[in-house]
Design goal:
Elements: H1 2-19, H2 21-28, H3 34-56, H4 71-94, H5 97-103, H6 106-117, H7 125-141, E1 143-145, E2 150-151, H8 153-174, H9 180-201, H10 212-246, H11 249-261, H12 267-293
């Protein structure tokens, strides 16, 4: 029981660590350009988890390490992880932090639909209801003015990021049986360097040097440490239950947005928030029910 309680703490910590990403990135984007910022976040995660990996690598067997047959999925994971955080940073820059946090749950929809149509995975009725509510909430959040029906450019960027991450999740799932530390280290360093190369080649590289360590630290906490505590939670809770607890991350992100950025919550936000909660409840219930049945 004590181990399970500690595991629950790890799962909630993983959600809280990731929830820091959007509001803290919003503050740093004043000093660092979006594409370069995306690169720094992933490099921070890769360096942090890579250091942890050095202490673990001697305990890994050869079968746990990525090999040639894993290359297509690893390459897809890296390329999508270059595109997705760039889109997210532009979404955060041109939109509100609270909107971006809530829209992050649309990743559940894209991951599920890609798993269904490309990888032929089964989707339960409860998950279809979740998709319906989360999509409805995302539509509400995507308009700047519901009466004039003007699309929010920030929301469009964030939705694009969730589509990329949905596809990336399915690529990563294909290699999930291998070393998580190795996967995250490769993901962080390769995707981070890729984003920085993009920022240099497009001349979209503007930053104040003193803020670079903060961006790297945020990447380690929001991506690296979040993944690390997520893995710890999975050890006792299993993947399904852990992912259910992790679904609270967008709501914690909204709270951080209010506390750190003093963002005001509109009626549109409240309606979308309530609809998103209903969708998330369906996800959590479906996840916990399936994990219990297995």
């Amino acid at each position: 029981m004590n181990k399970n309680l500690i595991a629950v703490f790890y799962a909630i910590a993983a959600a809280a660590f990731y929830a820091l990403n959007v509001p803290c990135s919003k503050m740093l984007l004043v000093q660092i350009s979006p594409i370069f910022m995306a690169g720094l976040l992933y490099i921070g995660a890769g360096l942090g988890v890579g250091i942890l990996y050095l202490f673990r690598i001697k305990h890994e067997s050869q079968s746990e390490r990525l090999d040639r047959k894993d290359f297509p999925y690893t390459l897809g994971m890296v390329l999508l992880d270059i595109i997705a955080p760039i889109l997210l940073m532009f979404g955060v820059k041109y939109g509100t932090s609270s909107n971006a946090s809530l829209l992050g749950n649309f990743e559940i929809v894209t991951t599920t639909l890609i798993a269904l149509f490309i990888f032929s995975e089964r989707v339960s009725l409860r998950l279809w209801f979740a998709i319906l509510f989360i999509t409805a909430s995302s539509i509400i959040l995507s308009f700047e003015d519901l009466q004039a029906f003007n699309f929010s450019i920030g929301s469009i960027f964030v939705l694009g990021a969730t589509i990329c991450w949905g596809l990336e999740n399915n690529c990563t799932r294909k290699i999930s049986g291998k070393s998580t530390y190795m996967i995250v280290t490769i993901k962080g360093l390769c995707s981070g360097l890729g984003s920085i190369i993009v920022s240099i080649t497009t001349c979209e590289i503007n930053f104040a040097t003193k803020y670079i360590p903060l961006a790297l630290l945020l990447g380690f906490v929001a991506y690296g440490l979040s993944i690390f505590t997520y893995i710890r939670a999975q050890k006792y809770l299993g993947a399904a239950k852990t992912s259910a607890f992790y679904a609270i991350a967008p709501f914690i992100g909204v709270l951080f947005s209010i506390l750190l950025l003093d963002e005001k919550i509109t009626l549109q936000n409240v309606i979308a928030f309530l609809v998103m909660i209903i969708g998330t409840i369906f996800v959590v219930y479906d996840t916990l029910d399936r994990s219990h049945s297995t």
